Amino acid sequence: MTGRLDIPAARRRYVTACTLFWLPLGLTVAPLILLLTERGMTMAAIAGFFAAHSLVAAALELPTGGLSDVLGRRAVLAAAGLLNLAALTLLGLGSAPWLLGLGMVLMGAGRALSSGPAEAWYVDTLQAHSGPDAELRTGLARGSSATSAALAAGTLLGGTLPWLLGAGPDLGARLGGATSGLVLPLSVPLLLGAAVEIAFVLYILAALPEPSRPAATLREVLRGIPVTVVDGLRLGGRDAMVRRIFLSAGAAGSALAALELFTPGRAAALTGASDSGAVLFAALACAGFVCSGVGSHLAPAAARLAGSGERAVMASLGASAVGLLLLGVTALSTGVGSMVLAATGYGLVYLGIGAAGPSENDILHRRVSSAGRATALSVQSLALQLAGALTGLAIGVLGPGPLPWLVGGAALLAGALLWARRGVPEPSTSTCPN
């Protein structure tokens, strides 16, 4: 039973689950595109793989959130780990386009399954121990910090391992004839990530107990998912505070789309070559994850200083908007002062988004019941992904320059201004409709 876990133990297990899940994905940040290129894939094919990943993740986001609420957190998290294990193995060893595409599709499905269950488990556990008014923000902040730290460490390790393994392209030939042509130095971070996924699945099954649920047939599970999904969507329509949270997630998605699309090209232009630009981008991505983790760690203090979680969200998103505006005004300059301002802006974006997240989710969990908690988190994630995809399509035609950064900054500023209005009282989850 979840009630047998005390709060420190639940917090440690939640943080460990976050770390083990996101470390393998961090290991793919630096080498994945280069590995696909080494396998002979064109940029058009690689773009298609990533589009398939995003579309699958978006399409499954709400149904898998409902599955977690109906079937249980632990089972869905374990399934996410198994899907990522298969995906990383296929991407690390596969060479045929259909195998690589299947790997990206499975990774998208794993991403959708993982969206919400761990956090929902943690909140369920705390509220079972301390009631609906349990203090959530500290644990949510630590989980978010652990996620950022795992991504940062994975990015550094994934970018460094292939270089440490030497210049020879075929590591498999050095390991033995059976693996010749299969294992490249760039494959190693992904295969290491697959090994970590095994540890993740075993940890989830052993360390995340939850209350026993009534036995349900497959038909009952499938019947319960649409009802839960519809309730999650209706929640945003009838609750103004939850609607702000979903819209703020969309604003963050727009900002992150601008960063992900235009930072690599800006780094390459700064260094004068694509390979050195890739190294700089890996370092920037790691720094961004670190800033996000620091922001998440500071979220409880920010809420205390601001006087409420709502004011903390407004200030945090406002700081992120300033960061993107700094990136916009320095887009056409390569001077040292402009580079310093751009780096400061880049850090501010991640720092502010990281600081806003725990306070947003603390508010969200107090307005939804356990029966719809993972679904609400999935709606939030879906808002971020869809807004990011739409913004990416819109600013992708603009080309380099200040305008894409300013569009992302304007979206974040609009998200911050949503919180300028006085909010309604935060009800206990026990009084919320399911």
Q: What fraction of the residues are assigned to beta strands by DSSP?
A: under 5%
Q: What Rg, in angstroms, do the CA atoms define?
A: 21 Å
Number of E strands: 0
Q: Percentage of helical residues?
A: over 70%
Would you give the CATH topology of the largest domain? Answer: Growth Hormone, Chain: A
Average pLDDT number: 81
End-to-end separation: 22 Å
* CATH homologous superfamily identity of the largest domain: MFS general substrate transporter like domains
What is the element string, with H for helices and E for strands?
HHHHHHHHHHHHHHHH
Number of helices: 16
Can you give keywords for this protein?
434 residues; 2 domains; Growth Hormone, Chain: A; disordered C terminus; mainly alpha; globular
